[in-house]
Design a protein that fits this description.
Elements (H helix, E strand, L loop, with lengths): L7 H16 L10 H5 L1 H17 L1 H7 L3 H6 L1 H10 L1 H11 L5 E3 L2 H14 L5 E4 L16 E4 L2 H9 L7 E3 L14 H8 L6 E6 L8 H8 L6 E6 L4 H10 L7 E4 L5 H7 L2 E4 L3 H9 L4 E4 L5 H12 L2 E4 L2 H12 L2 H14 L4 H13 L1
Parallel strand pairs: 1-2, 2-3, 3-4, 5-6, 5-8, 6-7, 8-9, 9-10
Helix pairs in contact: 1-18, 3-4, 6-8, 10-13, 11-16
Length: 366
């Protein structure tokens, strides 16, 4: 169970599902948006509200995110929502699909199922899988059997909040197993029509295609170092259309994608990624030892992700397009710094997380 179709939560659920089917080909899975299943109208409303807030009033989201006062004040409402969802959960869990385990890649469905287990005294293995580098308090529930976290720091955070260490596994954020395969830069560049002898910059604005992409490209045009660019626009069709029309204006070789299905190839072909710091995107970059430039993180989860990545020495932060251009020039003129960032990424990456999670799930239901 996940929430939001165009999200890291969803991609993480697909990665786990793929790993389960690789290890146990006969397994039957149901991969669903838990919020849309139980509250379809509310889900659409909240998604629209969330996107509006992070675009227009990000400081509001920063206040709400992982705020103990907010958590305490909404506890009653959250319990009421969980109780109201129990009838639909009963149909899914006890009448129709009857799962041997439930895996949640977002806190809302995890809490919903945890409370349902508590109300009915169900012995149903429940796994909470974090998809960001830093945990938040909305994850903490009784009746969760295992938490999958990205780092020892996350494990310690959960333990300080009362979760038993035996329930926590430091497996990393689940990404598609394809990211653990070395396809070879030269081969992928040839396939994409790029020059493998040149440096390649990958620009990603998350699934929503957010961020000052056009301004960054204008600034990168002024960088004297010769390199090529790949841009992934996600579901932002306006951005994709605009950039495609402008391709002939850019001096540097550039490829433009919408919702790319071959991100494992795009990261393989790249030497540097400029991105918003979503948990899945940055974990995919780490799996490919790809140095990062972080720009315009969403307050809350992405700010915390940024702090983690900066502390680990695998990323640098830029404030605007001009700042991005300066950092790219410096990094491409200084191979020592790039190599250092790659080595640090190699130390903390966990490309096999999805497979490790799948093995744990299968061991719990045998």
């Amino acid at each position: 169970m996940y929430i939001t179709s165009n999200s890291g939560h969803y991609r993480a659920s697909l990665a786990i599902e793929s790993a389960l089917k690789t290890l146990s080909p006969g397994i039957i899975t149901m991969n669903i948006n838990g919020f849309a299943y139980t509250n379809p109208i509310l889900e659409k409303l909240i998604n629209r509200t969330y996107m509006s807030v992070i675009k227009n009033n990000p400081e509001v989201w920063e206040y709400l995110y992982d705020n103990p006062k907010v958590l305490k004040s909404v506890q009653g409402l959250r319990n009421a929502i969980h109780r109201s969802n129990s009838k639909k959960l009963k149909v899914l869990i006890q009448d129709e699909f009857k799962p041997d385990a439930v895996v949640c890649t977002q806190a809302f469905p995890c809490g919903m199922v945890a409370d349902y287990k508590k109300y009915l005294g169900l012995d149903l293995p429940l796994f909470g899988v974090l998809t960001d580098h830093a945990p938040h308090s909305y994850w903490i529930f009784d009746n969760v059997d295992y938490y999958i976290v990205p780092s020892e720091a996350s494990r310690n955070h959960f333990m300080r909040n009362g979760v038993a260490g035996a329930k926590i596994r430091v497996f990393g954020i689940p990404i598609d197993p394809k990211f653990s395969i070395n396809y070879g830069k030269a081969e992928i560049c040839k396939k994409l029509g790029l020059d493998s002898r040149k440096r390649t910059v990958l620009i990603m604005g998350g699934s929503q295609g957010l961020g000052p992409v056009e301004k960054m490209l204008d600034a990168l045009e002024r960088v004297t170092f010769d390199f090529q660019v790949i841009v992934v626009c996600g579901i932002n069709k306006r951005l994709q259309k605009t950039l495609t029309k402008r391709l002939k204006r850019y001096k540097k070789k550039m490829l433009v994608f919408g919702m790319a299905e071959n991100v494992h190839e795009l990261t393989e072909a790249s030497d540097l990624i400029i991105t918003k710091p979503g948990g899945l995107t940055t974990s995919e970059a780490l799996a490919k030892n790809l140095p990062m430039i972080i720009i315009h993180p969403i307050p809350g989860q992405e700010t915390k992700n940024t702090d983690f990545l900066l502390q680990q020495g695998v990323a640098l932060r830029a404030e605007d397009g001009d700042d991005v251009a300066v950092i790219v020039q410096e990094l491409f003129s200084n191979s020592v710094k790039l190599d250092e960032m790659r080595k640090k990424a190699d130390l903390i990456k966990k490309p096999d997380s999805a497979m490790d999670i799948a093995q744990l799930i299968l061991s719990a239901i045998k």
